[in-house]
Design brief:
Elements: E1 9-11, E2 14-17, E3 33-36, E4 41-48, H1 71-88, E5 96-103, H2 106-121, E6 127-132, E7 144-152
Parallel strand pairs: 5-6
Antiparallel strand pairs: 1-2, 2-3, 4-7, 5-7
Helix pairs in contact: 1-2
Length: 155
Amino acid sequence: MTSAVPAPRRVGNAEIIHHEGYDDTIVSPFVPAMRVVSNARLVFISGVTGAPVYHDHPHIPEVFDAMPADAAGQVQNAFDHLDAALAAAGCQRHDVVNMIRFFTDVAADQDVVNAHQAAWFGGHIPTSTTVEVTRLATDPRLRFEFHVVAAAPAD
């Protein structure tokens, strides 16, 4: 069932954009487009994982031994790290306009991440792309990594 396409809706420093084919009965973890409002500053956040944010390069495997092995533990750490990066950049959760999510096993972990992500955002839904990859660069035990763009308030 197709619903009337809603007008753009302001969320933080962006507007949510829908288009033809919009259906308000579909539950989705992403919106098709967001438009950053005038004077907002874009913030690009490096890949967020369940591993410690600050670590040596080349990587020292023992640094990652305390990292949770399960998806639930890693997603909690990743979103805690995202909270810290957003706060440091003067942003809030609703300022996130785009997430690119890299999974090493989409089938095993996407539902866990989607549930945590939905609760973490508390109703806000950014644009999103999900990709499955062979492995992540930081440590082979990592299950996913998120690249995030936010729209910070103008000074």
